[in-house]
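DM from R.C. (forwarded with permission)

"hey, sorry to bug you on a friday — could you get me a structure for this? deadline for the figure draft is monday and I only need the backbone to look sensible"
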Amino acid sequence: MSKRDEYVERLKAQLDQWNAEVTKWEAQAREAQASMRAEYDKQLAEFRERRDQALKTLHDVQSASVDMWADLARGSDEAWAKMREAFEKARSHFHK
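My reply, with the result:
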């Protein structure tokens, strides 16, 4: 397995883990009182936006040439770091 393939698989695994957690949060948001639902929805929207950006970056890395993927990976690392921050921020709201 190439380094790019390993990198992509690692990102996919992380994304799968985050998506599983978000599914639980969505259920919590549906059951929350109105006062909390707005905050939950806000956190979920921010997470989804970051996830969509991270997915785009992942697709870019997957489709990049052998020469270009390393450069894209550096940019991808930044996008995934922002995704991780959004995830942790949302997690702090759902695990109070």
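R.C.: lifesaver. The chain has one domain: 1-9+37-96.
me: no worries. Residues 8 and 62 are 7 Å apart (CA to CA).
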